[in-house]
Give the backbone structure.
Amino acid sequence: MNKLNERPVLIIGGGFSGISAALEITEASSKSVIIVEKNPYIGGRVLQMYKYFPKLCPSFCGFEINLRRIKSADEGRIKFLVSSEIEEVIKIQKNSGKVAIQNGDASAGEKVSSLPADASAGNIRSADAGVNSNNYGNTGDGTNVNDYVNGYKVKIKQKPQYINDNCTICGECAKVCPENRLNDFNYNMDTQKAIYITNISAYPSKFNIDAEVCKFDSCKKCEAACKYSAINLNAKEEIFNIEVESIVVASGWKPYDAEKITNLGFGKYKNVITNVMMERLAADNGPTGGKIIRPSDGKEAKNVAFVQCAGSRNENHLPYCSAICCLASLKQSIYLREKNPESSSTIFYIDIRTPGRYEKFYNRASSDEKTKFVKGIVANIFEDELSGDLFLEAEDILSGKKIKFRADMVVLAAGMVPNRPAIKTGDIKIGYDANGFLFNQNDNLGIFSAGVAKNPADVYSSVQASTGAALSVLQFSANKRG
Ligand SMILES: Cc1cc2nc3c(=O)[nH]c(=O)nc-3n(C[C@H](O)[C@H](O)[C@H](O)COP(=O)(O)OP(=O)(O)OC[C@H]3O[C@@H](n4cnc5c(N)ncnc54)[C@H](O)[C@@H]3O)c2cc1C
Ligand code: SF4
Ligand code: SF4
């Protein structure tokens, strides 16, 4: 049973790690959790993968299992706010007595709402406009606390929700919308209408409006086309002030900006792409309908070079190993060989890192005679302007020779960079390591990390770290009760 007087746990980031932590916490205790997700959908970067290793299942498989668990969570104890970010986190001092959240601090024009305690699992509906008190859960009476902090007041900002749950994703609105936006889900490789759905697995399952390109009052064509009254172009940003017991940071990663590795030509030569782009090219719902073709001329990519450690293990870029790039390139080499049977792939590597049981995956990919390996760092990439082909200059360490390799497309195995939420934290000092990963040094604050926010990792290890974070949350809570 849910103890309604228990304060919830805040989870920052609704990727696989945040969702796993939420499920573990709620399935192992009576606690409730609130996931705050910056995107208009939950699921994180894994949803942008075509398939995921080691089994090469479609990314939505694991996600749908998690979604079913979320929906069946006892008493709707997993709530989430999408298109939202944390603005401010304020420590509640121990023994400070009953703490009421001050809502008067919202800046002019902001709509301040409380989270209704009866919100069912899913996207939280804000309370009536103008409600100026927070009534979510317990305010904390300050008793029975030990040396730890007594929770946090958290201010959350949610972007306007122009589309409501009436949306049936029929798509009639997009048919009449005159404006286009870059499709960021596909790493800007194509465009979509200003009113759009991010991906086939999107949850909440509804369209969104890109406020940066929408013409609002001077257009309103979508409103007229929608038969379900699902669109409100006057929706406003909302502020939620809540109080939580502890925090799990599961804000994941972004790809390293490959343009910074100037010798490898990304951003300069069209046929140099990154590994995350390759995932979308291979995806049946991606910008090319699943065809692995060259961006310059749309020709089938036949001779593809993968450049490992593009940025990673390099003091000038990312000094750490991103842990998954070797596996990702092996996986993408399998995609290529399956989709373009005439193709061959050549992987330039420093070391191939496929630890533990992933050795089997390496054996699977490398047993293909059209998949070759060259041990050597690629020093430079040049383009043949006429053909758009690329020349890679490298030293083949095993033969001791300098080589010049011609490829018709290059995939840079760009590393993972941790997302570091930009939160005002006042007197709380959240500890990050030199690379921006949040290790466990914040445990005594009741702030824990999970997934790639903690260290570069695959999904399996991210989920394990999330289980660890969930256990820490429960221990922290138990210790507070003394
Ligand atoms: C090319 C490539 C291929 C890969 N393929 C595989 C594979 O096949 N198999 C595998 O096991 N692993 C694979 N990985 C690794 C996998 O993507 C990660 O293990 C996984 O994404 C980790 O999940 P996460 O929830 O920690 O992070 P994410 O997936 O990044 O999720 C974090 C979430 O937090 C949100 N967020 C970020 N900042 C904020 C904020 N300030 N406020 C609110 N929300 C925020 C994000 O929008 C996102 O939804 C691959 C990685 C790469 C680079
Ligand atoms: S907003 Fe309306 S028209 Fe657009 S997809 Fe949803 S239900 Fe259909
Ligand atoms: S109001 Fe905006 S989203 Fe709607 S049709 Fe016009 S441009 Fe598109």
Summary: The pocket of iron/sulfur cluster (ligand 3) is lined by residues 176-179, 194-195, 209, 214-216, 219-222, 233 (CB under 6 Å).
